[in-house]
Design goal:
Helix content: 40-55%
Largest sheet: none
Mean pLDDT: 77
Low-confidence stretches: 25-32
Number of helices: 3
Order of helices and strands: HHH
Distance between the termini: 69 Å
Strand content: under 5%
Length: about 100
């Protein structure tokens, strides 16, 4: 089978020529080029919500995963024997967590 620019494969219509991109409608410039030869830039607008999310993510990224001052304070209190936890508080929190998990 022989294919040329003017003739398509047997039983198929001929292949259309490639279309060249046109410039801005009515501008008289080809390819959308500016007078200085540079192409026009794309434009993107970011919503207020997206900007807020970007700011929140930036703040979160800048926040350390571990609060070093609190850890150091607790470590010092444990080492000095000043860190006392009441068993009733631990039991109460555990029971609240279990009840919460049952509701979910």
């Amino acid at each position: 089978m022989r294919i040329t620019d003017k003739q398509g494969p047997e039983g198929l219509p001929p292949v259309p020529p490639r279309v060249q991109p046109q410039g801005d409608a009515g501008s008289g410039r080809a390819g959308g080029a500016n007078p200085d030869g540079a192409r026009g830039a794309d434009k993107v607008e970011v919503s207020e919500r997206a900007r807020g999310l970007q700011q929140a993510k930036k703040a979160l990224d800048e926040t350390p995963d571990v609060r070093e001052a609190k850890v150091a304070d607790l470590r010092q209190r444990i080492n000095e024997g000043r860190y006392n936890v009441r068993g009733e508080l631990i039991a109460d929190r555990l029971l609240r967590q279990v009840n919460l998990n049952e509701l979910i």
